[in-house]
Design goal:
Layout: H1 2-33, H2 59-77, H3 87-119, H4 132-156, H5 158-168, H6 183-187, H7 190-200, H8 204-222, H9 229-233, H10 238-247, H11 251-257, H12 279-284, H13 307-312, H14 346-353
Helix pairs in contact: 1-4, 2-8, 3-7, 4-5, 4-7, 4-8
Length: 354
């Protein structure tokens, strides 16, 4: 089994390297076929996109935050949380929403203004000649494919899972839990630094467009408003649904990832890792498309751990007995524990033997 898993991992990583290389190859061919003449730059938008530039002016600073709050209010008003947003759930969601807005800006600022000039001296804006479509293509793949692997490894490596389990502990879907993460998972979000590096190299405008489009897709996939259902309901829209659900994350595919069981044929927390693009799951065989929604969300082993343990583990550990966030407890057993007959209570043993 281990040999098969290693072989699949090697194959998937090889395919990933090829995908990473595609935009680089496309940009190279564009430059080569143009005899080294740059006909356009990413610094200015293509003419057919100029009309939407004003809408992006403040979206990166406060626009997306307002969008999340408004959508969350609509969800609450429609009663879509089913009275589950109480106690520790409310605390961890609010802290996870606010804290990154205080923690991440100085971290990213230090990385962009101090670390990158030191690590990559004299390389600022060296990719400013790249056309907008090339920068967009490059960042969209580099950002989202890297996040796919970051997400996938946090599900498949037991130690890493404890940094991501906070996101899956919520027994509901929606804007309230969209930002729910352990702070270490957030700070070491690998693609953030990759995108910052590409921005430093001169791809700031394409990076902004990727950020905004990706944010709307991922927020829509987490929302408790199932905006994709009409595409499954009406036959005339089925061709669009077929393309859409394989290209990007939708509520149906991402809700399945947050299901508390995979035994119903709908839940698929061992896959559907894609964030903006579901295409990665299609390519690597980790996707499940059913067009159905799970009946329940979260984790069967969830013990409603304290908000500080969920957000700040391993600095603060849970006091809940048996919790994966408590001292000396693994999140996922590496191998099943052997049970001897001496450990089985006599009444149960008698029933089994009879």
């Amino acid at each position: 089994m281990a040999v098969v898993q290693n072989s699949k991992l090697t194959r998937d990583l090889s395919i990933s390297l090829l995908i990473y290389a595609l935009p680089v190859l496309a940009i190279y061919l564009y430059f080569k076929l143009g005899n080294g003449v740059v006909s356009e730059s990413h610094v200015t938008l293509p003419s057919f996109l100029e009309f939407i530039q004003p809408a992006f002016a403040n979206i990166r600073t406060w626009g997306l935050t307002v969008f999340m709050i408004v959508l969350g209010l609509i969800e609450f008003g429609a009663g879509l949380y089913d009275d589950q947003w109480t106690g520790e759930e409310r605390k961890i969601d609010i802290v996870s929403f606010l804290a990154p807005k205080l923690i991440l800006p100085p971290v990213i600022a230090f990385f962009s203004l101090t670390a990158l000039p030191y690590l990559l001296p004299n390389l600022a804006n060296t990719l400013s000649w790249v056309p907008f479509w090339g920068g967009f293509f490059l960042i969209a793949i580099a950002d989202d494919l890297t996040q796919y692997w970051y997400h996938r490894l946090h599900h498949q490596v037991p130690f890493l899972w404890r940094f991501h389990r906070t996101h899956h502990s919520a027994p509901y879907m929606g804007m309230a839990m969209a930002s729910r993460q352990n702070f270490i998972y957030t700070i070491f979000f690998s693609q953030i630094y990759l995108t910052a590096t590409l921005t430093y190299l001169g791809l700031g405008l394409p990076a902004l467009f990727v950020l905004v489009i990706k944010s709307f897709i991922t927020l829509g996939a987490h929302s408790s408003i199932a905006w994709d259902k009409p595409f499954y309901k009406y036959r005339v829209l089925h061709p669009i649904a077929w393309v859409l659900e394989r290209l990007i994350s939708t509520p149906a595919t991402h809700h399945a990832h947050h299901a508390d069981t995979s035994g119903d044929g709908v839940g698929h927390f061992k896959g559907n890792f894609g964030n903006m693009f579901f295409l990665w799951d299609v390519i690597f065989g980790t996707g499940l498309i059913t067009r159905k929604f799970p009946e329940s969300y979260g984790m069967k082993s969830y013990k409603q751990e304290e908000w500080y343990a969920q957000f700040l583990w391993p600095i603060f550990k849970s006091k809940k007995e048996g919790s994966a966030l408590a001292d000396g407890v693994l999140s996922v057993p590496l191998k099943p524990k052997a049970v001897s007959f001496e450990e089985i209570p006599a009444p149960i043993l008698e029933q089994v033997q009879s």
